[in-house]
Design brief:
The protein has about 700 residues and is an alpha+beta fold. A hairpin with a 2-residue loop joins strand 1 and strand 2. The protein has six domains: about 190 residues, no CATH class; about 30 residues, no CATH class; about 130 residues; about 100 residues, Chitinase A, domain 3 (Roll); about 90 residues, no CATH class; about 80 residues, Chitinase A, domain 3, CATH 3.10.50.40.
């Protein structure tokens, strides 16, 4: 079962690394329910005609969340993390379905002999070799006998869980191997010819220096250029593909922020005053429990500090009072604090140490880990070198390669148990300590001189709005919504008369996670996706605020209404006409100096050193200009005036110099580099194309 646990750990969904071993098991088979005739309302999506059931999908999401918690016990699982996990499971599952269909069409498969070789042969798959359960615990290297033993004993698990996990792991590996073959097929189909390599070499080695004047379109007054409705309509029709849109909505909303009252502040002050006597009489052994029960500040770290390290302005006052206690006092605008000096000691300012960390693995109990560390300690006591043993045994690989060296560190940097072992006055040079990370063997190399430090305990209480205060602001929000619903008052006019600030978000799609400016507002997005134009919402609550929303516009899927793009089209057509006027006006200009005198525009110098990078340093992204300059980089074009209309202006330029591209005897390096770029591009673009053709229907917005 220890091996099973290792495979289970490898199934954990990490936000930074999607697709590690066992992910296929997390994804599972979402499609059983639909095949057995489940209702259409339970369908969360569809790919290549296959329906995905919401219940099965949610089970896998919850498994992913639980696995994340197991792998990251110190990390909180907030809403953003849940969304990331859900999206990653969805994306990976969609990819698996699409690629498996493509593998089948192309005849890509893995034979039994091939798979056996990757499991136990001379070329073991990396995902197998890096499973800790299949490694020699002493060397960390893959041990073939361990996987053989695991597979022989797999049926002895009475729960059957081991076999289920292995089948899922095996499926994941098969998909990985197939995908690798698919990528190889794509990459080998990309061939860079010698001519392409020569052209690529030329593009990368162009070096052209030029002087330029940019005549902006604003040089011609708008009043001198007319654009007709017919011209706008014609342009719209000719470029209709540029004016497509997905369904979305524009929303306006008002926020009623809940602010605590004077009564709330007084109640908070009373509540912290009520625990003052208990705090004054608190023994050192009860501090941790008392703080956890009574403070609102969960990030407090009560370690010994020098006077200069305290950021509390009341600290000096605390040093002068007889009881070593002050409070309650305002620590910030919205919190009260009580403080007490629990002890003062002379302690080292910093410590230099080494450590060896042994972490529990494969269901090994902590007692056994302690025995391992004790054995290492005995070897050091008998004269073996600490650094050598750290390199051999420590699970903290970052320090292990340095012989366990942690360097110098200040008090409070390490976790409490480790910190106390290093900074306490009753310390051992070589000590064994258990922390949340495992069991440490600490060797204190050196300690700085002793300085006076204080251990101060703080209890903070934040002033929060009471239920009465929340009700007050909810009533205001509800009254605002009812005024529009019942009295036909316009949203904008009521916002103005109520002296509220209107906020907006535009082009909100149904799968958007939050409304701009409103964290964790997915519920409002779901309402918006179903709401009609001009509809007013119910009162939403997001943390300490109430929100009322109004659907301003509904943009339906398809062509954007010409009225919504008329101004932008008019601007495009106006600039086209202006560019023609500018080119015509200055067609007889002989050089930049003459143009500068006539326009009062400055000449600037620039260069293009690499044609593959279309961004010109002093100009920006103007691909038409870049291509125009490169195409005229010839000896008979030097110091001649050239002109071109581009995206942002009309450019007049003179080429000052250019460097001939060096001729190579062998372009194989260029071909290899270009091929590598093709390789990276090919697999990504191929999947994007497959995804586009897969008719993916995503209904997650109906459920989340």
């Amino acid at each position: 079962m220890a091996a099973l646990e290792n495979i289970r750990k490898r199934s954990v969904l990490l936000l930074s690394v999607i697709g590690i071993a066992m992910l296929a098991f997390i994804l599972g088979d979402f499609m059983q329910s639909q095949r057995s005739g489940g209702p259409s309302s339970s369908t969360v999506g569809e790919v290549l005609g296959e329906k995905i059931n919401i219940q099965n999908f949610q089970i896998k999401v919850e498994e992913g969340i639980e696995n994340f918690k197991t792998q990251n016990p110190s990390s909180s699982v907030d809403q953003q993390t849940i969304v990331q996990i859900r999206n990653q499971i969805w994306d990976q599952y969609i990819k698996e379905l699409i690629l498996n269909n493509e593998f089948s069409n192309l005849g890509i498969d893995v034979t039994d002999d091939e798979f056996f070789e990757l499991l136990q042969g001379s070329n073991v798959h990396p995902e197998i070799s890096k499973v800790p359960a299949f490694q020699d615990p002493n060397t960390g290297r893959f041990d073939r006998s361990r996987i053989v033993g695991y597979l022989k004993n797999i049926d002895t698990d009475p729960t059957g869980e081991a076999k289920i996990r292995w089948i899922s792991f095996q499926r994941y590996l098969l998909n990985q191997i197939k995908e690798s073959k698919y990528n190889d097929l794509l990459q080998n189909s990309m061939y860079v010819t010698n001519l392409e390599a020569i052209e690529r070499h030329a593009e990368k080695n162009y070096d052209v220096s030029f002087n330029c004047i940019a005549v902006p379109f604003s040089y011609i007054n708008d009043s001198l250029v007319s654009v007709s409705e017919n011209e706008i309509n014609d342009y719209y029709k000719e470029n209709i593909e540029d004016y497509k849109q997905e369904e979305s909505k524009d929303v306006d909303y008002v926020v009623f922020n809940v602010v605590y009252s004077a009564e709330d502040e007084l109640e908070t002050q009373k509540s912290i005053t009520n625990i003052v006597n208990d705090f004054k009489n608190l023994s050192d052994t009860d501090v941790d429990l008392f703080v956890r029960r009574n403070t609102d500040n969960t990030i407090s770290n009560f370690t010994y500090k020098k006077e200069s390290e305290f950021d509390d302005p009341k600290f000096k006052e605390l040093l002068t009072v007889n009881e070593d206690f002050i409070g309650p006092y305002k620590n910030s605008e919205n919190s009260f604090r009580i403080a007490r000096i629990f002890s003062a000691e002379f302690r080292p300012d910093s410590v230099e140490a080494q450590h060896i960390l042994i972490t529990p693995k494969n269901d090994v109990p902590l007692d056994s880990v302690n025995k391992i560390v004790t054995n290492i300690k005995d070897r050091i006591d008998k004269g073996e070198d600490f650094g050598t043993l750290a390199k051999l045994f420590s699970d903290d690989k970052g320090s292990a390669i340095k012989g366990g060296d942690l360097g110098w560190f200040k008090e409070g940097v390490m976790v409490k148990e480790f910190n106390d072992a290093c900074f306490s006055n009753n310390f051992d040079k070589l000590s064994q300590v258990t922390t949340q990370f495992g069991v440490h063997l600490i060797n204190i190399v050196s300690r700085s001189k002793l300085v006076k430090k204080h251990k101060v305990i703080y209890i903070d209480r934040y002033v929060l709005p009471s239920s009465e205060t929340f009700n007050k602001y909810y009533s205001q929000a509800a009254q605002f919504a009812n005024e529009i619903l019942n009295n036909n008052v316009e949203f904008d006019s009521l916002v103005l008369s109520s002296n509220l600030a209107k906020r907006s978000d535009s082009k909100v799609k149904k799968d958007k996670e939050n409304i701009s400016g409103l964290p964790n507002s997915r519920e409002m997005v779901k309402w918006l996706s179903e709401a009609k134009e001009n509809q007013i919402s119910e009162v939403f609550q997001f943390e300490n605020s109430f929100v009322v929303a109004y659907v301003k516009n509904h943009h339906k899927k398809g062509n954007i209404d010409i009225a919504n793009v008329e101004n932008s089209i008019k601007s495009i057509l106006r600039n086209i006409k202006k560019s023609k006027q500018i080119l015509s006006k200055f067609e007889n200009i002989e050089n930049l100096a003459q143009l500068s005198n006539e326009t009062s525009l400055k000449t600037f110098s620039d260069n293009i050193a690499n044609m593959t990078k279309l961004n010109i340093p002093g100009i920006g992204l103007e691909p038409e200009l870049t291509g125009h300059i490169i195409s005229r980089s010839e000896s008979n074009s030097l110091n001649k005036l050239h002109m071109i209309s581009a995206k942002n202006a009309v450019y007049f330029y003179e080429i000052q110099s250019f460097t001939d591209v060096p001729v190579l005897q062998d372009y194989s390096t260029e071909a290899k580099e270009f091929s590598s770029e093709y390789t990276t591009y090919s697999s990504n673009s191929a999947y994007k194309s497959l995804n586009k053709e897969a008719d993916v229907i995503d209904n997650r917005s109906l459920f989340y």
